[in-house]
Amino acid sequence: MTKLQNDIFLRACKRKNVEYTPIWIMRQAGRYLPEYRAVRKKADFLTMCKTPELAAEVTIQPVDLIGVDAAIIFSDILVIPEAMGMHLEMIESKGPRLYNAIRSINDVNNLKQVDAVKDLKYVLDAVSLTKKELNGRVPLIGFAGSPWTLMTYMVEGGGSKNFAEIKKFIYNQPKAAHLLLDKISSSVAEYLSAKIEAGADAVQIFDTWGGLLSPADFQEFSLNYIEKVISKIKRKGQPVIVFAKGVHYQLDKLAESGANVIGLDWTMELGKVRSKIGNKVAIQGNLDPTVLYGSKEKIREEAVKVLKSFGKNNGHIFNLGHGILPDVPPENAKFLVDTVKEESRRFHGKK
Ligand code: CP3
């Protein structure tokens, strides 16, 4: 295994000493980069995911172009529902569509149990190829959707305005919902273990739709299964990051979930969260992604606010509070990375 030349992201995940605050950007391999769009012109999104050479190429683009301290494997959370037997399409400018949405216990029983090594071999091949091509420059992050977020897509059949179908499902058919969550959890745990085995240095669980739920429902339908997944991931010290969007309540419970890092959206103050949970886990976040539409001065001002809010200490990984938007100028993303690396030095080192 090649030794990492830059392991600052992994050190921060473990709350160890760092010289500056490491930064990577959710959805950093994506449409805001002209170099990504050039590859995307030649192949549709799912073909890119399923062709390890193309996935590796776009995974490494932001390392070269933006200077981030970690790469995240180019793929999608919806490859799991597809591997479970659902038909997935990415519809241009509309988003993902999963056909024959799950609406009954019968539908749940008809889903396949995923054999990650076989059914998602293309992702594992992309991970090992990317590791090889990165050649130890920065760590590689693997990821999956949380069981709740995946179930939301599987029951809605895609994105949604008011999430009526998933709410009907959990309130009217709780048994089927729990059966489905169990099935997804085993698949996700097996998948993340296989990604680590293939070379991923850390894994992130995206609970994009955790914030749809009341605190009690979040515990019952999301957190319980995140904990289950984390406890089943086979790993040798590779950190687990949980990003739960819109979950202000129960951050203390998330910090007890077994995750090493909690990712936050931009509606919370890092300082406050840190004083609540920061001695248990590292914290990742949380600049409002739309700040990248601002001027360089504004980007610097807001980035420094985030750094100041966390304050002088280890255990902070800089990121946006959600994915980078497709129409952000790439030079603004690069400016953010440079600024964080420069401005954060005064928050580290000798006190
Ligand atoms: O972060 C990265 O750079 C790695 C790649 C990555 C993608 N999707 C690529 C992608 C990651 C980590 C994801 C995760 C993902 N996918 C999530 C969780 C994160 C979040 O944003 O909350 C969700 C909810 C999805 C599902 C998904 N995939 C949606 C809703 C869409 C359509 C919206 C959109 O951004 O276009 C996708 C498509 C998708 N996934 C694209 C990319 C680069 C755009 C596809 C294209 O090139 O046309």
Architecture overview:
With 351 residues, this protein is of the alpha/beta class. The chain has one domain: Alpha-Beta Barrel (TIM Barrel). 48% of the residues lie in helices and 12% in strands. The protein has 16 helices and 9 strands. Strands 1-4-5-6-7-8-9 form a 7-stranded parallel β-sheet. Strands 2-3 form a two-stranded antiparallel sheet. Helix 9 crosses helix 11, helix 10 packs across helix 11 and helix 11 runs parallel beside helix 12. It is globular and about 60 Å long. The two termini are 36 Å apart. Coproporphyrinogen III binds next to strand 3.
Produce a short descriptive summary.
With 351 residues, this protein is an alpha/beta fold. Helix content is 48%, strand content 12%.
What features would you highlight for this structure?
two-stranded antiparallel ribbon; 351 residues; seven-stranded parallel β-sheet; binds coproporphyrinogen III; alpha/beta; TIM Barrel; 12% strand
